[in-house]
Amino acid sequence: MPPRKPSRAQASAATSAPDPRFAEQPSLFDEAAAAPPAQAAAAAHPAGAPSAATGLRVQAPGQRLRSPAGKAFERERERIERLRQQLQTLDAVGLAHRAQCAQRLAPLQQQETELRRRMVHALDAWFDGARKGLSPTQLALLRQIVIAQSHSLALAGDADMAALHDRRSPQTLAEQRRERAQAMHQELQQDFADALDTELPAFDPDNPDASLHATIDHLRQRLSEQDELKKAKRAQRQARRKPSAAQETAAAHLADADATLRLLYRQLASALHPDRASDAAEVAQKHALMSAVNAAYAQRDLVALLELQWRAELVDPEHLERVGEQRLKSLTLLLKQQAAALERDRQASQQRWCAEFGLPPYIAFSPTSLHDMLQDQLEDLEAAIDAMQHDLQQVEALPTLKPWLNEQRRLVREAERLDQRLAALDPWG
C-alpha cells in the first residue's frame, strides 16, 4: 500500500523549526501510551506494522466498528444525531407556526380587543345621567360587566381601560394588587416560614410588588441553602462508604473520559494554531475551526470535536478499529452524557413551544396538531367577533339593551351554578 500523503498541518510541522507549543501529543487510543516505559516499549508496533496515530481519531464517515464496545459507541453517536435532528425539527415547526399565528391570528385578536374596548365605552355611557330607563339591578349588572371587561383590558396594558376601571370599581387596581400581594405573603408565611425555620421580610403595603418579590427571593435562597446542606451530608455519607467494584469502574471510565476530552482539545488546538498556517486563507480557516473547537469543548460535545478532527485532516480511518475496549467504553460514556443533555434540551424546547402556543400536554407537538389548534382558534375568534359586533348594536338603544342585560344575567347565573357543581365534585374542596 503506498504511504499516505501527509496533511498540510503535518507538512508544515515537518519543515518548520521545533516549537514547544506544537509538541506532539500522545495518542488517546494508544493503549501503551499510559503504560510505564518498559511496558510501552514492549507494546510498540513491530517493523512494517502501521504506525500509531499521534492524536485522537475517529473513523471515516461510513466506517463501522464491529466490536461490542464499538457498536455501543456507534449507537450513542447515532442517538445524538437523531436528537439533534429532532431539536432542529422542533425549532423549525415552532418558528413556522409562530409566523402563521402572526399572519393569521394576530389581526383577529387585535380586532377583538378593539371591539371589547368599544363595548366597554358603549356600556359605560349608560352611567351618564342623561340616559335613563335602567333599574338599579340592571345598572348594577352593567357596572359589573364594565368593571370585569375593563379590568381584563387593563391587565393587558391598556391605560385608558385602567383609568375607566378605577372610576367604576369600588376598589382600584392598585388596591387590588396590594391586597393580593399581602394575602400571598401571609400564605407563604404560613406554608413555608416555619418549615424552613426562617423569618420572612416584612410586608410593605406601599411597595407590594417589591415586597412580594423580596419574600420569594428569600424563600428561594433558603431552599437553596437547605438543598446544598442535604447534598453535603449525602456526600459525606457516600465518602464513608467503600465504593463497589461497579462504582470504581464507572469512576475510572469517567476520569478517562474527561482526560480524553481534554487531550483531544489540546491536540486540535495544537494542529489548528495560526502559526502553522502558510497563508492568510489558511489562517482564516484555522481560526474558524478553532472557534468551533472552543465552542464544542465548552459544551463537552465529543461528536462535534471528532467531526472537527475530520475537517482538520487529522483522521486515520483505520485507527479506531485498534482502540482498546476500555478506552472505547470511556468515549461511549462521554457520548451518553451528551445524549442525556440533548434529551433534556429536546424536552425543554418542546415544553417552551407548547407553553407559547397553549398546546395541552396530552396533545403531541406536531405540524398537524398545531394546524388544527390554529384553525380552532381562528374559528373561535371569528365567532366571538361576530357575536361582539351584534352585541354592540344591541347595547346602543334602551329597547334592545334590556333584553341583552337579561341574557347576560342568565349566562352569569348559569356559570355560577356550573362552578358550584364542579366545586361539589372536587374531593379536595
TrEMBL record:
Residues 231-243 have a biased composition (Basic residues). Residues 1-74, 224-251 are annotated as: Disordered. Residues 32-53 have a biased composition (Low complexity). Keywords: Coiled coil. Residues 371-398 form a coiled coil. This is Molecular chaperone DnaJ.
